[in-house]
Design a protein that fits this description.
This protein is an all-alpha fold. It contains 16 helices and no strands. The protein folds into three domains: 214 residues, Growth Hormone, Chain: A (Up-down Bundle); 46 residues; 226 residues, Up-down Bundle (Growth Hormone, Chain: A).
C-alpha cells in the first residue's frame, strides 16, 4: 500500500533518491553538447563521431525506455531503479576513462540503456510510495528539482570542460550514484504491479497481464533507429555500406510494426493510434523535438567554434530557455486548460521558429545581449507555450488507464526525432566531417540548419492548427506541472490510486 507521507523522514528520503536519479540523466543529456568541441579536439574525432557521441545514448534510451518502465513493474521498481543507477554510473565511468572515440561511443550506448531503467523508475517510485493525498505535490517537487538540475547542467558542464576537463562531465555521475543507490536501498520501499502499489507505474507499455515482455519489439525498434542513424551519419563520407544499412533499417522498422500488430502483448499497441488526436499530437511532437534536438546539438558548438565562446559561456548562453520553462510552464498549462491546446500548439512552434531564425544574426562578432539573448528568449517563450499543452493533449487523447503508455510513446517519439535530426542535419546542410574545426564552414552550415529547423517547426504549427482539438471534459490532466528538460516532454504515470 502506498502510504508514505511527504512530510515524514522516509518521504523526504524517497524524494531525494528520485531527484538524484533523474538528475543524473537530465544532467547528462544537457551537458554533453557543450563538451563536444573539446571532445573532438582531444580524441581527434570528426563530426560523425561527435554525432555518435550524442546519438549512441539516444538510440538505446529511446528504443528501450518503454521496456525499462515495465521491467520495474514486474521485477520491483526499486530494484530496477537501483540497477539503472549503478549501470548508468558504470557506463559514465567508462565514458570518462575512454581512451579513444570508439570506446566513448560504445559507453554512451550503455549509458542510454541505464537511462532507460532509471528515468521511468524515478517517477514510478514516487507514484508507488506516496500516499494519494501527497502524490501530486511529490511529483511537483520532483519535476521542479529535476528542472533545476537541467538548468544547472549547461553551466556546470561548461565549467567542468573549461576547468578539470570534459571527462568530468561523465565522472560526475559516479559520486551521485554512490549517494543515490544506498539511500534507495535503505529508505525506499519496494513495489511492483502485483502489489498494486502505484498502479500503472511510470510506463505501462511492454508488459502483458501475464507478465511476458515484448523484448523482440524493443530490440527491433532500437535496431531500426540505430541502422537509420548510421546511414544518415555516414552518408556524407560516401561509405559503400550506407545504402544496404539504410535498407536494413527500414526493414527493421517494418518488422517492428508487423510484430507489434501480431503480438498479444505489444510494447506499442497499434490500436492506441486509433485516436486521431493522439496520432496528430505525436506528429507535432516529431516536428518540434526534431528541431529542438538539432538546435541544441549545433548551437552549443556554434557558439564556441564561430562566436568564440568558452564552454562555460556557451552553456550559460542557452540557459534562459530552461529557466523560462521552469518559471512559466505551469502557467502555460493552466492557460491551455482555459483556451484549449490548439492555439498554444500553433503559436509555440512559430515562436520557436522565429527564435531559430534570429540565431542567423549570431556570427563571429556576435554580442550576447543584442544577438544571442533575443534569439534564446524568443525560443524559450515558444517552448513555454507548447510543452505543457503538448503533454496535456497526449494524456487527454487516450483512456485514463493508458496514460502511462501514451506518455512513454510520446517521450520516446521526441527522443527518436531528436536523434534523427542530429544525424540528418549535417547531411542536409552539407556539413563536412571537419566542419567544426573551421569557423566559416560551420557558420555557413549552421545558418542553413536553422532555416531547416524553422521550416520543420512551421510544419508542426500547421499540423497542430489543422488537427488538434479541445480535449473532452473530465480527461486525465498532467501531474508534472513544471518542466525544465529541453530535449523531451515529461514522463507521466498511469492511473492514480
Amino acid at each position: 500500500m502506498s502510504d508514505v507521507r511527504l512530510a515524514s523522514p522516509q518521504g523526504r528520503w524517497i524524494l531525494l533518491t528520485t531527484v538524484l536519479g533523474s538528475s543524473m540523466a537530465l544532467l547528462d543529456s544537457t551537458v554533453v553538447n557543450v563538451a563536444l568541441p573539446r571532445i573532438g579536439r582531444d580524441l581527434d574525432a570528426d563530426l560523425a563521431t561527435l554525432q555518435w557521441t550524442v546519438n549512441a545514448y539516444m538510440v538505446t534510451l529511446a528504443g528501450l525506455i518503454l521496456l525499462g518502465g515495465s521491467l520495474g513493474d514486474r521485477y520491483g521498481r526499486r530494484k530496477v531503479f537501483v540497477i539503472g543507477v549503478v549501470w548508468f554510473a558504470a557506463a559514465s565511468l567508462l565514458c570518462g576513462l575512454a581512451p579513444n572515440a570508439g570506446v566513448l561511443v560504445a559507453a554512451r550506448a550503455l549509458q542510454g540503456a541505464g537511462g532507460a531503467l532509471l528515468t521511468p523508475g524515478s517517477l514510478a517510485l514516487i507514484q508507488a510510495s506516496f500516499h494519494p493525498d501527497d502524490r501530486g505535490r511529490a511529483v511537483g517537487l520532483w519535476s521542479g528539482f529535476g528542472g533545476i538540475g537541467a538548468a544547472v547542467g549547461p553551466f556546470l558542464g561548461g565549467w567542468l570542460v573549461d576547468g578539470p576537463g570534459w571527462r568530468w562531465v561523465f565522472l560526475l555521475n559516479v559520486p551521485l550514484a554512490l549517494l543515490c543507490a544506498p539511500i534507495a536501498v535503505r529508505h525506499v520501499p519496494e513495489s511492483d504491479a502485483r502489489s498494486g502499489a502505484g498502479e500503472g507505474g511510470a510506463l505501462d507499455g511492454g508488459r502483458a497481464p501475464h507478465g511476458h515482455f515484448d523484448v523482440l519489439g524493443a530490440a527491433l525498434g532500437a535496431l531500426a533507429l540505430a541502422l537509420v542513424t548510421y546511414a544518415l551519419i555516414e552518408a556524407p563520407g560516401g561509405s559503400p555500406y550506407v545504402a544496404p544499412v539504410a535498407v536494413a533499417g527500414v526493414a527493421a522498422g517494418v518488422a517492428f510494426v508487423v510484430v507489434e500488430r501480431r503480438r498479444p502483448d505489444p510494447m506499442m499497441p497499434p490500436d492506441i493510434f486509433a485516436s486521431r488526436q493522439f496520432t496528430a499530437v505525436n506528429l507535432v511532437t516529431l516536428c518540434v523535438y526534431a528541431a529542438f534536438g538539432g538546435f541544441f546539438f549545433l548551437a552549443a558548438v556554434h557558439l564556441q567554434v564561430v562566436a568564440g565562446y568558452s564552454a562555460l559561456g556557451a552553456g550559460t548562453a542557452l540557459l534562459p530557455t530552461t529557466v523560462l520553462m521552469l518559471l512559466l510552464s505551469a502557467r502555460s498549462g493552466e492557460l491551455a486548460e482555459r483556451i484549449g491546446p490548439r492555439l498554444p500548439l500553433t503559436v509555440g512552434p512559430l515562436l520557436c521558429a522565429a527564435g531559430m531564425l534570429l540565431m542567423l544574426r549570431v556570427g563571429e562578432d556576435a554580442r550576447y545581449l543584442t544577438d544571442v539573448l533575443p534569439a534564446v528568449l524568443v525560443l524559450g517563450l515558444g517552448m513555454v507555450s507548447l510543452v505543457a499543452p503538448l503533454t496535456a493533449t497526449v494524456l487527454a487523447s487516450v483512456d485514463v488507464s493508458r496514460a502511462g503508455l501514451a506518455s512513454g510513446i510520446n517521450n520516446a517519439a521526441a527522443r527518436a526525432a531528436g536523434l534523427v535530426a542530429v544525424a540528418a542535419l549535417p547531411l542536409v546542410t552539407g556539413m563536412g566531417p571537419e566542419a567544426y574545426r573551421s569557423a566559416p564552414a560551420f557558420d555557413h552550415a549552421f545558418h542553413r540548419a536553422m532555416v531547416v529547423c524553422a521550416g520543420v517547426l512551421v510544419v508542426g504549427a500547421g499540423l497542430a492548427w489543422a488537427t488538434v482539438r479541445r480535449p473532452v471534459p473530465g480527461c486525465r490532466k498532467p501531474e508534472c506541472r513544471r518542466h525544465g528538460s529541453v530535449l523531451a516532454p515529461p514522463l507521466e504515470g498511469g492511473r492514480r490510486g
